[in-house]
Amino acid sequence: MRRLSLLVVATVGVVGIAAVVATAQRSRIVAFRVVASNLDNPRKIFVGARGTIYVAEAGSGGDDKCWTDGGAKTCIGLSGSITSIAAGHETRVVTGLPSAASTDGRDAEGAAATIVRGDRYDVLLGDGRVSAAGRKQLGRDGAIAGDLVSTAPGTVSPHVLANFGAFEASHDPDHGDGPGAAAGDPSLDSNPYAMTAYRGGFAVVDAAGNDLLWLSAAGAVSVLAVFPIQIEHVSAGVVGKKPEALKVQSVPTTVAVGPDGALYVGELTGFPFEVGTARIWRVDPGHKLRLYASGFTNISDIAFEGPNLLVLEIAADGLRDARSPGALIRVAPDGKRSVILSKGLVSPTGLAVGNGSIYISNDGIYPGSGPGPHGEVISIPA
C-alpha cells in the first residue's frame, strides 16, 4: 500500500461485552439535521469545552506536487483546515494545512483529527507515504504530512510534536505485517488517523502501521498495542478464480477513552473488506490486549455516550459495495445493539457526542464544491 486513502485503505492484504458477535436490530427512523455544509473531506470531530464543534478538514489537494498512483493522479497543496461550528455559524479557524487529493478533490489525506484547548489546536495530519529513513517526499507543501502538530489561528508554521513516519521507519511495530506482506513486500507504511488526549499526552492510531502509539508530554513516542491480522476465507471471484485464504490487516481508524479509563480502538480492516470482520479492542497499558467486541463492518469512528458505545461504519455492506450506506450503531453495556441511523449516511468518517447531540461527518470523502456530494456535519439527538 503506497497510498492509504479512506476507501482504498489497505488494498492488499463498558467492560463485559468481550468478543460479542451480534446482529444489530433496526430501531426507529431518526431524522438528522445539517449543522455545517460545503466542507472539504471532513474527518474527526471534537467538541470543545464551551460546546463549540470543531471538524478536521482533510482539504482538497493542490498543485504543489502531483504524482500518479494506481492510475489516479494525486496532487498536494495547503487546502486542509480546521472549522469551528457555533451558534449556527461555521468558520475556518485554522487554514494552510497539507492536503493530498485526487484532481477532483476527493479521497483526501490531510488533517485527520484535532484537539482544541483555548487558542491551541493540536492537529493530526494523515500521510500514506514513508521512506525507509522516515523522510517524506511530498514537496514543500507536504513537509509535515503524517505529523502531529500544534498550531493556532494565523500561525504560518505549525510546531511539530511528533513525526510518526520516522517512528514507523525506525521501529516497524507490526514487523512486516504491513499491506505488502501478503505479496512478499513487507514495506513500511504509516498513516496516523485518529487521536485522543491520554495521560498528559496523546494516544494515536496509525492506520497503516496497525498500531496504537502514545506520545508523552515529554515528546517520546512508544507502542501501546499492535493489532493482529486476520485470516479470511473469501469465495472465488474476489481476488482470483478460486477461493482464497487472505491475511487481512487490522487498519485501526479510531481511538476513544472509555468510562473505565481504558482505550478502545476500532478497525476498518483491510481488503477484501468483508462484512462483519471489523473488531473493537480494549487497550489497558500494562495488561494484555483484549478483544472487546466484533461483528462490525469497516469502522470509521467510535465514541462513548455515557455507558453506551457508538460505532460508526463507513460502509455497512462493505467497501467493495460502492452503493453501501454507512451506519451508526449503539452498543449497550449488555451487548445489545441497535442501528440508530443509516439512511442518508454516505461515507461517514467522524463521530462525537456533546451538547445533547451526536455529531457525524457525512460525505466525508468529498470536497466542499464541484459536482456530486459535498462534505458536511450532521447531528441527531443523543
Low-confidence stretches: 6-23, 179-185
Helicity level: under 10%
Strand residues, percent: over 45%
CATH third-level topology: Neuraminidase
Strands of the widest sheet, in order across it, are 1-22-21-20-19
Count of extended strands: 29
Termini separation comes to 38 Å
Structure overview:
This protein has one helix at residues 164-171; strands at 20-21, 25-26, 33-39, 42-47, 53-57, 65-69, 72-86, 89-102, 111-117, 120-125, 147-151, 159-163, 192-198, 201-206, 211-215, 221-226, 230-234, 244-248, 252-257, 263-267, 278-283, 290-296, 299-305, 308-313, 327-331, 337-341, 350-354, 357-362, 375-381. Helices cover 2% and strands 47% of the residues. The protein has one domain (20-381): TolB, C-terminal domain (Neuraminidase). The longest helix has 8 residues, at 164-171. A five-stranded mixed β-sheet has the order 1-22-21-20-19, with no helix packed on it. The protein has one helix and 29 strands. By secondary structure, it is an all-beta fold. It is globular, with a radius of gyration of 19 Å.
Write the layout of secondary structure elements.
Layout: E1 20-21, E2 25-26, E3 33-39, E4 42-47, E5 53-57, E6 65-69, E7 72-86, E8 89-102, E9 111-117, E10 120-125, E11 147-151, E12 159-163, H1 164-171, E13 192-198, E14 201-206, E15 211-215, E16 221-226, E17 230-234, E18 244-248, E19 252-257, E20 263-267, E21 278-283, E22 290-296, E23 299-305, E24 308-313, E25 327-331, E26 337-341, E27 350-354, E28 357-362, E29 375-381
Parallel strand pairs: 1-22, 2-26
Antiparallel strand pairs: 3-29, 4-5, 5-7, 6-7, 7-8, 9-10, 10-11, 11-12, 13-14, 14-15, 15-16, 17-18, 19-20, 20-21, 21-22, 23-24, 24-25, 25-26, 27-28, 28-29
